[in-house]
Design a protein that fits this description.
Chain lengths: 761, 155
């Protein structure tokens, strides 16, 4: 029904609307913003992982020449009496109060007109702590004596967190359970039982524009300029903290220099807001690359997966236990634990399933969503497990997957019937691209070749809302007001193409007003690949609303139906001059049924599914453990393509990022201290690191997506890691069960397999 | 302003300029005070290329280059022209930019690359641009852009 009226705007590789600004260095970022009278804040951070604050001595910093003021939690309390924030739990203080919970937690801020002076002075602050026992491992956190928070404080907006209110002596920030069928019986009757445990280390987003926010007081309240993916959330949360109506807080977001899930909810916004209110001057805080390591990571995880399998390779039962290392503050971890947790059994048709998914507090940097919302951690486990089963049963990995794949019209573990999820098509396209059915040339000698495939899926987070406004001016030009943030994914261009398609104009002629909560309407956030579907639908409906009103206007001024009189003339006929406008509006919220508390069952878990598959060919040097990926194929189901070129760059960009998480990235810690917090020691992929890649989308349609489209930002991440691990196993017969796959890990595994293990370092 | 302030004279994007600088300022500090934001500090360690500035014809990391050294030098930045040159147009046409934060650095390095190697192969491109990072992972498109720019007549 949405494939109506093709005007050639949808489906066209229009260059990004803002490409020229970006290519000339003139694109607007908060990074560039400087306001008259502005002070720069530099954060003084905790040096210990867990402890009670005994004293904070700011006297030397305050006396440092050029310092305007030093601020601690005691000052913040005067403007924000209850300064705890967070999307799921109100657990994170603006500045540490009484206790610190992780190394790098903000404790005080120095303000100065010169950022270098603020930095110098921050180094003069001295804090003393009484150290407390700390916990770092997500599985240990389940039972450890060290407890991160004295009491749990769920935000209250989520019914499934209510039972955690006021709980003490626990690090569990959410436990999600799903029960389907009779797992005990499936295991009792199974021909084979396989059980494996997989782990991932913490990694991080590292957008090249680090976190940055500016706040200024205005006559009516506060304006916050921030590199944020969630302007509406920032407005609502800051208003809540201040006890103000929403309309006194204005949040403005220009382009972002990358986001990837880092710049969500509250990061620096509450802090700059409090500072601006305290000193009544504009305040900017721009983090360094190093400070990003103390702000947000991707969850480290442990996943124990156990399967009952019949002689002929049918999976009859599966148990999934997942522990998510949430760090010191919950951030969005509890939502990941549930909303991604329910896909833990993978895209397979399994009648008997249990899932137990736990969000844990630990004394590490808080963890949040990173390009996949927990899915890459899950796919890493279930797709490695899939190959291990196939190998043990001497089945071809593709044949094993074909036998078990979750087909259209069948029920997923939640009981929700699969619709518009091209799982089979993605699997088939990956294998076709990989020439899977043809013989594969292996090598003799010390460098061995191998190949592997993997496939993963994700449910869009639900229920969420987007609102859009399309304004047609009296000359016929159109402007879109929406709070979707273009952080590089190309949403401005895609939304303009949708407006243009509906109004039969050129996408390049549509003007996009960037998020400004005084002007652009509510949007839940730019996250989880939700925007093209949710906001795209709101934009399409708003444009249709404007179009219907234009038709009304035509009728009103006596223009016959079907006439192609220019829009400008309609306005002149009515207003006798170039005047007036037509405003189309719409909001979009898909239907959703929350899961039953005990069983996790729901007939409607998500508005749409995303599917991503990958194939890898590798060469493994058995003498050094070095792995060279010689080919990486990525295939996604993204519905129809609004902008094919941007889709391709999203798929390949996501795969590059996940390739880094697979082969080279990990946060290294020692007693809670991060030991590699810089680009010198934490290596993101460079142009020399990336393998030859092919990325493409399958021919598909999301029936209720705007013109059949759905999200694409994450699908390229899902299957990369296990495809590579499976290829390594294929090459040298060793299984790597923990990310990243370092040469050392591969070499150790080869030596162990040869009965000649290396001694522990 | 402290007594450490000094005045430097330099050419910036074709214009003669003077500026008062502090001894600890780097080139990015200097340029942002002149309202030029195309060179941007990201890693601050000379490892990402976001802060690339052309000094006397050679690309340098602005985050590591003291402003004091700009005295008497000729600087050019991404803002040095008003139209688009072949390299910029090629980055736009191939979709070689996503968030755009790394883009000015890549474009300046690509100009220098093409001056030295008018018809570069993949390997040359990869090695020449190895000092520039793109977290959005637009590398494949960047390589495509460089090749496209090489084919086009110079603007
Ligand atoms: S900011 Fe200068 S090289 Fe990264
Ligand atoms: S385009 Fe975002 S870092 Fe390169």
């Amino acid at each position: 029904m949405n494939k109506i009226m093709r005007h050639g705007q949808v489906g066209r590789s229009a260059p990004r609307l803002e490409a020229r600004e970006k290519a000339t260095g003139r694109a607007e970022y908060v990074h560039n913003l400087r306001l008259p009278g502005m002070l720069y804040g530099k954060i003084f951070r905790s040096t210990i992982p867990h402890g009670r604050i005994r004293s904070i001595d700011v006297s030397a910093a305050a006396a440092h020449p050029g310092v305007y003021r030093v601020i601690t939690a005691a000052d913040v309390a005067k403007v924000v009496p209850n300064p705890y924030y967070g999307p799921a739990f109100h657990d994170q203080p603006i500045l540490a109060i009484d206790k610190v919970h992780h190394v790098g937690e903000p404790v005080a801020v120095v303000l100065a007109t010169d950022p270098h002076v603020a930095e110098e002075a921050a180094a003069l602050i001295v804090a003393q702590y009484d150290e407390l026992p700390a916990v770092y491992d997500e599985v240990e956190a389940m039972t450890s004596k060290a407890v991160v928070h004295d009491v749990l404080k769920p935000a209250g907006t989520f019914p499934d967190l209510k039972h955690l209110q006021g709980k003490t002596d626990t690090n569990v920030a959410l436990d999600f359970h799903l029960r389907r069928g009779d797992v005990a019986k499936a295991f009792a009757e199974a021909d084979h039982v396989f059980e494996h445990t997989f782990r991932t280390k913490a990694v991080l987003h590292l957008p090249l524009e680090p976190f940055v926010s500016v706040a200024e007081t205005t006559g009516s309240g506060l304006t916050i300029h921030t590199a944020s993916q969630s302007p509406s959330f920032v407005r609502i949360e800051i208003a809540r903290l201040l006890g103000w109506p929403e309309n006194r807080v204005r949040v403005k977001v220009p382009y972002l220099g990358g986001g990837f899930g880092a710049k969500l909810y509250i990061k620096l916004e509450a802090l700059v807001a409090a500072l601006a209110l305290i000193v009544n001057r504009p305040v900017k805080i721009a983090l360094t690359m190093e400070e990003q390591f103390f702000t947000l990571t991707k969850h480290a995880s442990t996943f124990r997966i156990k399967s009952a399998v019949s002689k002929d390779g049918k999976i009859t039962g599966r148990e999934c236990e997942v522990w998510w290392n949430g760090g010191a503050y919950a951030d969005i971890g509890p939502r990941i634990t549930q909303k991604s947790g329910f896909t833990a059994p993978g895209p397979y048709d399994i009648d008997n399933v249990t899932i137990d998914s736990y969000s844990l507090y630990t004394n590490l940097t808080p963890a949040g969503a990173l390009r996949g919302f927990g899915i890459p951690q899950l796919v890493w486990a279930y797709e490695s497990h899939a190959d291990m089963i196939a190998r043990a049963l001497k089945l071809d990995p593709l044949a094993f997957r074909r036998k078990n794949i979750l087909r259209e019209g069948n029920a997923q573990a939640t009981g929700t019937i699969m619709r518009d999820a091209a799982i089979e098509a993605v699997l088939e396209q990956v294998s076709a691209r990989m020439d899977w059915e043809k013989p594969f040339a292996r090598s003799s000698g010390s460098v061995k070749r191998g190949r592997g495939i993997a496939i993963g899926f994700k449910a869009s987070i639900s229920p969420t809302t987007s609102v859009a406004i399309v304004n047609v001016a009296a000359d016929g030009s159109a402007t879109l007001y929406c709070s979707t943030v273009d952080m590089g994914q190309g949403s401005d261009t895609a939304n303009a193409q949708i407006v243009a398609e509906v109004l039969s104009i050129e996408a390049e002629a549509v003007r996009i007003v960037h998020p400004d909560t005084d002007v652009t309407p509510y949007d839940m956030a730019t996250l989880g690949s939700r925007s093209l579907y949710h906001m795209g639908n709101a934009v399409r409906l708003a444009a249709q609303d404007a179009k219907a009103k234009l038709a009304d206007l035509a009728r009103e001024v006596g223009v016959p139906e079907g006439s192609n009189i220019p829009i400008a003339e309609l306005f002149v006929k009515k207003y006798k001059m170039q005047a007036g406008n037509i405003i189309g509006t719409a909001s979009y919220i898909p239907s959703y049924v929350p899961p039953e508390a005990e069983t996790g069952q729901t007939p409607n878990a998500t508005p749409f599914w995303m599917v991503g598959g990958a194939g890898a060919e590798v060469e493994v040097d058995t003498e050094t453990g070095h792995v060279r990926v010689t080919r990486l194929v990525n295939v996604g189901d993204v519905g129809t393509l609004i902008n094919p070129r941007i889709v391709a760059t999203q798929l390949s960009g996501a795969a590059v990022m996940q390739y880094g998480f697979t082969m080279q990235e990990q946060i290294e810690t020692d007693g809670g201290q991060i030991t590699n917090a810089s680009f010198a020691d934490y290596k993101i992929p460079s142009i020399l690191d990336i393998p030859p890649m092919e990325s493409e989308a399958v021919d598909a349609e999301q029936h209720d997506g705007p013109f059949g489209a759905k999200g694409v930002g994450e699908s390229g991440t899902f299957a990369v890691s296990p495809a590579i691990a499976n290829a390594i196993d294929d090459a040298v017969g060793v299984r790597i069960s923990e990310l990243p796959i370092t040469p050392e890990a591969v070499y150790r595994a080869i030596r162990a397999r040869n009965g000649d293990p290396l001694e522990d370092a | 302003m402290s007594e450490t302030v000094r005045t430097i004279r330099f050419t910036l994007n074709g214009e003669t300029r003077t500026a008062q600088i502090e001894p600890h300022w780097n080139l990015v500090d200097l340029l942002t005070r002149l309202d030029l934001f195309g060179a941007r500090e990201s890693c601050a360690q000379g490892l990402c290329g976001c802060c690339t500035v052309i000094v006397d014809g050679t690309a340098v990391s602005g985050c590591l280059h003291l402003a004091a050294f700009a005295d008497g030098a000729t600087l050019s930045t991404i803002e040095d022209s008003h139209g688009l040159d072949a390299v910029q147009q090629a980055f736009i046409d191939t979709g070689a930019l996503q968030c755009g934060f790394c883009t000015p650095g890549f474009i300046l390095m690509t100009r220098q690359l093409l001056a030295a190697h008018p018809d570069p192969d993949d390997d040359t491109i990869r090695h020449y641009l190895a000092g520039n990072l793109c977290r959005c992972g637009a590398y494949a498109e960047i390589i495509e852009a460089v090749k496209l720019a090489a084919k086009r007549p110079k603007a």
